[in-house]
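=== How it folds ===
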Amino acid sequence: MSRPVPMIERLRLAHAEGVLLFERENRAYFALSVSDRGDDYFAGFQARFRSLLAEQDAGVCHFHVVLGDNGEVLGRVNLVDVADGCAELGFRVAQKAAGRGLATSAVRQVCSTAARDYGLRSLRASAAADNAGSRTVLSRVGFVPTGEEILLAGLPGHRYLLSLADFMPPPKP
């Protein structure tokens, strides 16, 4: 049985309420594998959200939401620090949507968008050594470990790299 393809949208102001709800509902779940955003994130959410949209408008980041059938935010896939044809990929999926291939499909779609629409040639990513879910997603999409060991919120982690050559559309005849 094939999995449904998630609907990915570029972040816009209309997503603010849904993103805040997504982050609140999944805060404890996310804190199990990545550092907590902290109370200030939620207290200043509206200003922070507008700041993200300004960064996106400036072209230094590309933010995306993963939407369920009812328009509910089920995930986020972000490309940050865009420079020289490369960006850093980050993603998170709601606890209730985890383990069903949603993250893999969403990351794969954003990789295609990055190559086709944003002109990126490669992506970097990081995952905590004990975050098997994120490491699996990165591997399934084609990211390869660089061998660089890092610290993520004080925990050991690894760096990954993906060439977007396989995600490029074929040349027009």
